[in-house]
Amino acid sequence: MTSWEYAPAPESREIARLRPSYRMFVGGEFVEGTGEPLKTVNPATEEVLAEVSTASASDVDKAVATARKAQEKVWGRMPGAERAKYIFRIARMIAERGRELAVLESLDNGKPIRESRDVDIPTASAHFFYHAGWADKLDYAGYGPDPQPLGVAGQVIPWNFPLLMASWKIAPALACGNTVVLKPAETTPLTALVLAEIIQQADLPPGVVNILPGAGDVGSTLVNHPGVDKVAFTGSTEVGKSIQSSLAGTGKKLTLELGGKAANIVFDDAPLDQAVEGIVNGIFFNQGHVCCAGSRLLVSESIADELLATLHQRVSTLRVGDPLDKNTDVGAINSGMQLAKIRELVAAGDAEGAERWTSPCPLPERGFFFAPTVFANVSQSMRIAREEIFGPVLSVLTFRTPDEAVAKANNTPYGLSAGIWTEKGSRILWMADRMRAGVVWANTFNRFDPTAPFGGYQESGFGREGGRTGLEAYLNV
Ligand code: NAP
Ligand code: MG
Predict the structure, then answer these.
(1) What is the predicted pLDDT for the residue at 5?
(2) Positions marked catalytic
(3) Diameter of the chain measured on Cα atoms
C-alpha cells in the first residue's frame, strides 16, 4: 500500500494561555476553593498542565446559596429578552476565543485539535446561540403560557466533551431562568474555567453561573444538596443509578444522560465506502469516548467479508498521536484509568474467543494511547458486545434478515443511539420505528445539532437535551 507520510503540522499551544493555577468560580468571582487542589494532566504527555483548586462541602453550600439568591433576586425575574442578550454574548465570546478554547481542550482532554476546533467548540457556541433564541419565546414552547423556571440547577458533567457538555447543561438552564452550579470532571476542568472567565466578561449577574471543580465527592455533595431544585447528570450508568436512588422522594427534578452500546447497522445495499467512513466516524471519533458511539457494528452477512477488508484498510490509514497535530485522527485516551479499562475489556474479548485486528499504526512512547482495534466473530454474549468500552474498539456482529438486525440491535440494556446504512428510504423508516434508541442516524453518524433533542432509553438514562423538548427539563411543567 502507498504510504502517506505527513510532515508534522502542530498547532501552537501558546494560544491556550495556560496558567500555572486556576481557581473556582463562585458569585461572579474567582476564589480559592477550600478542598484539596487537583493537578490536571495532559494525557498525551503525562505532564501536569496546571493546579486547580477544588470545592469542599462548605464551598458547595456557598455556591448553592449564591445561586439561589441570584435566581430569586435577579435572573428569575429578568425578562427573557434581557436574559437572551447575555446568552447571546456568551455564544459570541466562545466563538471569538474558539482557537484558544480548542487548543486548551485538546491539551487537557487529549482529543485531536481537528475535532475540538471543528466540532466541540463550534457546537458549544451554537448551543448558546440556539438557547438565546428561546429565552424570550418560552410562552410559545408548548408548555403553556408563562412557564416558570425550576430554581437552582446542580449539574455534573464528564470528561469526554468538557466544554460542549458544560454548554449543553448551562445554556438551556439560563434560557429558562434558572441559575447553575456546575461540576466539571476531575480530569478536564480547564475549559469550564475559561468559560467562567467568558461569563464574567459577559457581565452575567454574579451567582447566575458557578463552577466548582473537584472529584466525584463534590458531585455527590452538589446533587444531594437540599438547596438544589434540579439535577442534570451526564456520565456512567453506575453513578447515574446511585444519583437516581439518592434523589428518590426529594422532589428534585432529574435528567440522566448515561452510557450506550449503539448498533451501527449496515445492510447489503448500502454504499460501502460511505458506510465505512460512517463506521470509522462512529467509533474512532474522540477515541471512542462517546456515549452514543457506534461500538457494535451489525453487518449483513453477505457483505461482511468485503466490508471488513475495506474497513481494515481504511482504519490502517488513521493517524494516531499528538492531539495538537492538525493531521491527527485519533488522539490520547483521557486517563490512565480509562486506558486500563479499555485494556481489560480487550483482554476479555481475546479470552472469549473474538478475532482481534489491531491497526499497525505506531504509537507515541509517552502518554496514554490505544491503537484502533476491530473485533470480528463477536457473539452477543461476549463482554465486548454488552459492556461500554468507551475507547477505540469496535465489535463486529453479523445478521441475515432485517428482523434479526432489529433483535440484535435492541439486545442491550442501553438505548442511546443507532445507525442505519441502506439505500432504501422505506427500510430506514421501518428500522427507525423499531430501534429502541433516543437518536437514530440514517446514512450518517455522530451528528449533533442544538435543535435536535438528544437522550436515551433504559439504562442510557431519561430526559432530553437540546431542541424544544430539552427546555422541559428546566421548566416547571
Ligand atoms: P463518572 O464516574 O460517572 O463521572 C461523571 C461525572 O460524575 C464526573 O464529573 C465525576 O467526577 C462525577 N461523579 C463521580 N462520582 C459521582 C457521584 N457519586 N455523585 C455525583 N457525581 C459523581 O464517569 P467516569 O468515571 O468519568 O467514566 C466511567 C465510565 O462512564 C466510562 O468508562 C464510560 O463508560 C461512562 N461515561 C459515559 C459518558 C456519557 O457521556 N454518557 C461520559 C463519560 C463516561 P470525577 O470526574 O471526579 O470522577
Ligand atoms: Mg486533563
Answers:
(1) 78
(2) 257, 291
(3) 67
